[in-house]
């Protein structure tokens, strides 16, 4: 099962009948997950966070894209693909060309029903994302991410450490998805 299908199942199970669902996707890339979520949930309001700028994501790029760097042109093309893929949902999406930490500062605590982390996969980046976005979730909200157990070992280690210090139970799903309820 693809990770975005797992996200849909999580939302259906935990928020599916809600009049309005507020969610944030951190690390949008080409907008595939954004489009699927927006299409599946007509009451979803989605904040889409990705700088699409290698200069602002240097730590991640140096760790995971050093042999094949992401160019300015490729990232700008990904942004344009995202715009096109989600255009019909423009009234329910908010695109922020910020890093995770920059964007997190824009929102009050308890602003979201779900936050999905899939940006900086370094240990430090994941820990920073967990600390920045965890407080943004409402009680009972879904905090989740991608690539747990994958080749990006920073994700697994950081999520496991965070869960230990915050006493959270982490659930693991198909598609390398991790999640917990806040």
Layout of SSEs?
Layout: H1 3-15, E1 21-26, H2 32-40, E2 44-49, H3 58-64, H4 72-86, E3 93-96, H5 100-104, E4 112-117, H6 123-133, E5 137-145, H7 153-166, E6 171-173, E7 177-181
Parallel strand pairs: 1-2, 1-4, 2-3, 4-5
Antiparallel strand pairs: 5-7, 6-7
Low-confidence stretches: none
**Helix/strand class:** alpha/beta
CATH homology-level superfamily: Vaccinia Virus protein VP39
Which topology does CATH recognise?
Answer: Rossmann fold
Number of helices: 7
Q: Strand fraction band?
A: 15-25%
Helix content range: 40-55%
Strand order of the largest sheet: 3-2-1-4-5-7-6
Mean pLDDT: 90
- Tally of domains: 1
SSE pattern, N- to C-terminal: HEHEHHEHEHEHEE
CATH class division: Alpha Beta
Basic shape: globular
Rounded to an integer, what's the Rg over CA atoms? 15 Å
The CA-CA distance between the termini, in Å, is 25 Å
């Amino acid at each position: 099962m693809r990770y975005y299908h797992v996200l849909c199942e999580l939302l259906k199970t935990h928020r599916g009948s809600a009049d309005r669902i507020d969610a944030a996707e951190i690390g949008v890339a080409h907008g595939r997950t954004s489009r699927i979520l927006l299409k599946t949930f007509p009451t979803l309001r989605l904040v889409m966070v990705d700088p699409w700028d290698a200069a602002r994501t240097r730590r991640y790029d140096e760790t995971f894209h050093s042999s094949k760097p992401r160019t300015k042109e490729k990232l700008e093309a990904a942004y344009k693909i995202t715009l096109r893929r989600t255009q019909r949902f423009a009234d329910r999406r908010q695109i922020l060309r910020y890093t995770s930490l920059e964007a997190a500062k824009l929102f009050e605590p308890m602003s979201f029903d779900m936050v999905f982390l899939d940006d900086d996969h370094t240990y430090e980046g994941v820990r920073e994302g967990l600390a920045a976005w965890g407080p943004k979730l409402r009680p009972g909200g879904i905090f989740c991410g991608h690539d747990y157990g994958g080749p990006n070992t920073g994700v697994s280690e950081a999520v496991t450490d965070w869960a230990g210090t915050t006493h959270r139970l982490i659930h693991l799903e198909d598609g390398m998805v991790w999640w917990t309820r806040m």
